[in-house]
Structure formats: C-alpha cells, structure tokens
Fold this protein.
Amino acid sequence: MAFQAGGQRPAPQPVPVSPEAQAYLQDYAMLLEAVSFPSFVVDHRWDVVLTNGAFTSLFGGAGPHPTAMPGDNFLRFVLFHPEAGAVLGDHEARWCLPMLAQFAATVEQWGHDPALQAIRRDIAQDPIMEAAYRHGVPHWIRVAGPSAAESDGAVRPLLHPDPRWGATECRVVEETPAMLREFGYTRFTLVLREPPRPAPARRRPRRVRRPAGHLSVVPTSES
C-alpha cells in the first residue's frame, strides 16, 4: 500500500513556547532518553517533536525519502515509506489501517490544517490507499468497533533489526503528561515484548521391555 508520495510537504509550523516551556521540553527529552523502549512525541499532524535512542535503533535503517522519514512525520512513514513494512510487521492490516482511521478522525477536527490536507492529497494519489481510506476504514470500524482504531493499548507486530528482538510484538502505550498535552503533543512508547522462545524438545518416553508373549495389559506370572 505504501507509495512514493510526490511533492514537498508543508513545513511544520512550530508551536510558540515560552522559555520555561522550552526548558521543560529539553528536560523531557532527557527523560525520554532514559526509557529503554522506543518512545516519541508527536503533534496533531504526527510531526515528530522528540525521539529517544531506542526509536532510532528501531527505525534508523529506513532509507532516505523526501516526505516520509520516521523521525519527521510518523504517519507519513507508516503510510508512504516503501521500507516501512521491513520494520512494521503485517504492515497494511495492523499499522496502515488503524492509522488511516486515526487520520480520518483527526481530519474531522483539524481539516483546515495544510499539512493534513497535503497528507489527504497524497492518499488520494494512490487508488488502493484511497479505496482503503474511503471504504475499507468505515467498514472495518463498523465490524471491529470504534475502539479498534485507538493506539493506546494496541498490540502490533514488529520486525526489529536487532537480532536479540527479531520478529516480536509491541504494545503501544500513550502516556502524555498535562504540560505536553497543553502544547498539543502526544507521547507514544512501543513496549517491546520478549520474542517467543522455541519450546524445548520433548524427550521420548523410555520404552520398557516386557517378556515376550505377554500383552502389556495382562500381568505376567511374575507379577
């Protein structure tokens, strides 16, 4: 479903913040870096504001793209980067569809935003993605329920480039303190799950030799 979105996306308009708020964001970035799981902060356009080292480790291998780098806009990365499926397992069903649903809800609230309008135009350029947005998402929400599109608590597959993790899952946790929320920001953490380990080989039961000519259910004369 991902395609090479053309053109240049509008430059994000920074949220005006006071020196005190700027200091808060600097300290929050240090807090984010102390988290061992991939964690990032986005605005309502999914423009990425802060990330930590674990986020870079997970997505840092993505090749260059003019509009859809994971550290620039996470929604664009999921929808448009041709290599997104190399990290996001079951990419279309488990990542694209829920994020298209979230995008549809965001457009209802922020439809005038030029950055969101640009994403909408790029979706319309791809017939498959446009069909998924216009028809697939509403049908999916009717079947699965409105909560299916929510990120917080969702468990989604990942293909981590670190072989210690490999093919695993993550739980998406949305955890946004009040001050970040005042800025219009949201924080997400991908809590990695330990990959399933292969079950130990079962030992075959030891066969007991029985005297010849006797069935196993009939006691022998020695019994």
